[in-house]
Amino acid sequence: MNLVKITEVTEKFGISSRTLRYYEQVGLLKSERPPFEKHRFYDSENINRLQQILVLRKMQISIKDILRIYESQDMETLVHSFVKRMEEIDDEISTLSQLKAFVSDFLNAMTAHGITHISALPLLYEKAQKEFLSASKQDLSMETLNSISDKLAKPLEMDIVTLPPMLMITSIRTDSRKSEVESFWDWLSANQIPFGKPGSRTMFEFQSGEDIVIMQKLPGQISDMQKCNESPEAFPFEYREFAGGLFAVSSTFADEDLGALQYRMLQSFDDNPSFEVDFLHNGSLRHEALIEAVFSPENNRERINIYVPVRQRKPNFVDYPEFEITESITYEEIERANPILQEYGVDFHKITPIYDPHFTVLENGQAEFIAWISERKLDTNVAVRLPFRVDMEFLAEEESEEYLWGTTEGSLWFSHGGCTYTMNAENYADKALKKHALSFQQPVLGNAFSYPEIGNIPHDRFNKLTWIVGEEHFAVILNGEVRFCGVSFPYMDMDLHLHTPETIIIGTNGQGKKRFRSIKISQLKTSAKTNTIQGALKMNVKQSNNTLPNLRQIIHPEYGQNYWFNGCASYLMECLNEQDFDYWFFAGLTGENFTQIYSKNGFRGNGLVDYRLSEKGNHHVIEEIFEKCGYACTFVPLKQALSNREMYVQMLIAYIDKGIPVILNDYGNNPHNRFGWGVLVGYADYGKTLLYMGGDGTVPDSISVEDLLPKGYTEQDDHCHGWLFIGEKQESKDLAEIYRERILTLPQLLTYEGENYCFGGKAFRAWADHIEKGYFEQITPEEFDNWGMHTVYVCCLATNSGGCKGFLDKALALDPNMTFISGIIELYRKTGHYWNDDNGTDLEALGGGFNVTLEALQDKSKRKKIADKLRAFADCMDEVTAVIERFKAK
């Protein structure tokens, strides 16, 4: 096979390597990298195709049309593309003919009316327009001229640049707060401050209200003097820190229509996959559009650059090709292809434990680590950017993993930025569900992958684990064995050197003990990039995107916040400046932190709110929650939202623009697999794409309206899916009364039983009977869903055993007469002991907690003990009800 190196291709055809990479990304070309070669190569078939593409591009056939030609391999498609191009040329000819006729008619009118001076042109224009219109001749309206001008306008040429932060002095006076350009100009000259040279990006002007403002970078010595507040009277003009950042820049002559150019720059961002204009929440730009003088190729015409603030969009992995897995490669070959630039040994004494895991440095210099839960982790305080490498020498103690907590007991993971890399993942307590997987998220793009059976870790011996997240290979090596190696990942073709260094965080899950002998983190070498990022940028002056300014994580599982609706409600109230209505308030008000759940006929959700919404038409339950807080609200069922999708999307946009999120409990065709309650916090592309926060996510996920509100949706069950729009505050409720009413009405929840589910003591007893009577004897390992069938109820009782205390303490503080509350606190604390601290007879010790197995639920002796323990929980709930009823009887 005759292969041609990429550098030879660029020289032969006069095309940049970035253009070649773009053709590969869209699927027009394909290259290959032979073993031990740094560069990509093209075979004869792809060289021939490149020649065809270049011919089509010379004829100005669009990339989209070229893709259609090659996808169909049909002559009809090629002919259609040529016909389309000829029609475009005909349109251009027609537009030029209109302009020619316009100019000709105007010239004839000027001659006929004896116009000899340019100052008379406006009067002639009005008169000629009336005459021509009355004679039904050529339309000389300004709208027609603008339309012709727009059609003939050349495509915008723009670049994306980064302006650095700098201290600037402006023409705005400190006393009057008005811009005085003339006196500012004189002041700069009198103080020998050098004027910014054209194109140096040190002097700009911009419009602020009705004022034109000049902004000049301060020289170093004057900047230092101002920072020290020396001679304040010497600075009669306002100085400010210019934050810099990304800007789109286009050039024009100063005598052109600058407003029209700025409008076209904004308009040209529509549907751009890489960038969008940087709007603030209030609809204004991050910074006013800047104008900078540049040297002009024509001495008699001034030329300027216009800068518009933009920001990068997060890349979407669905727009990128798949990577390739390579199996015939050695550890040594991978190391050679991904050389280390700088290695950092992690000092165990400088590691920062997060959320209080067990972590100690032993006398022999090794470090001992038990996470208990995945949120408890270790900050290495070593930051690297992509590409990087992590080497760990560690021992996993098998004996300490005997209880098999959680889904990833025995795993060892680290995170870098927003991506996590896990060895020995997805280890459920039930052996049939164990995967011993190697899982990771692709850098930058964040899409997740999991490969079962290749992540298993030998126990009770030291292992050497190496992750190479490289520019050439993505590889995982354990004890010298290449467990996984991939090439041609999309992230590898990105400008990795532009990414910010991120700290390496290390973690595991469960009570399994890890001992570290050494941890090394290495910055890998990147290939030099010689050309800058460019792109066709499209946008509209109308605000196309907006995001709430006060984004935060909705719930914190590490604090026992396991009911997502309450986190969403808390965030909504926070945006309305309601400080009393936090997560714990709503978890108590809804009753979720007090009430055990149990379904008689299948999984219904994770808490009381989900259960109540699982019955058709029961969405008034959500509206009643906010009514108790004094607010009106409207729950829009999904079916209703779909019937008028555009109206509700526009309603959402209006809410976001006002700074108010919208709660939702349906995610449609969710590409991020983050199902459950969430809040819509932003939009992009004029509402075609929506942003939402859910669960413990720290940054918004995006989802298209087509996915969130899919056409042709049919209801799968009776569950009340939909959106909740908060309304006006109707009244200020007495906080003490809200707490008191909730406590005194708890018996209604704790004794409820309906056709489909039950709560409180009845839930515990129904659950116990279900287990003891042998329901699980008929369940096969393949059918066993440990969360939906069992551990969701364990999570509920574990959460409530301590989660309700804050609400109870607050209620007692607001109403000291409810002295019985201390007894309720003790009863819930007692359930906590029943769960995992009852001298070997607790639910976890009996094998009926988070560590449940199908074998335990099928064994008659074991399941009886589990059922008996659940009935002890029921007795506690009955006593809670009795305590409250005795108080009410008084």
Automatic annotation (TrEMBL):
<dbReference type="GO" id="GO:0003677">
    <property type="term" value="F:DNA binding"/>
</dbReference>
<dbReference type="InterPro" id="IPR009061">
    <property type="entry name" value="DNA-bd_dom_put_sf"/>
</dbReference>
<protein>
    <recommendedName>
        <fullName>HTH merR-type domain-containing protein</fullName>
    </recommendedName>
</protein>
<feature type="domain" description="HTH merR-type">
    <location>
        <begin position="3"/>
        <end position="72"/>
    </location>
</feature>
<dbReference type="Pfam" id="PF13411">
    <property type="entry name" value="MerR_1"/>
</dbReference>
<keyword id="KW-0238">DNA-binding</keyword>
<dbReference type="InterPro" id="IPR000551">
    <property type="entry name" value="MerR-type_HTH_dom"/>
</dbReference>
<dbReference type="InterPro" id="IPR047057">
    <property type="entry name" value="MerR_fam"/>
</dbReference>
<keyword id="KW-0805">Transcription regulation</keyword>
<keyword id="KW-0804">Transcription</keyword>
<keyword id="KW-0678">Repressor</keyword>
<dbReference type="GO" id="GO:0003700">
    <property type="term" value="F:DNA-binding transcription factor activity"/>
</dbReference>
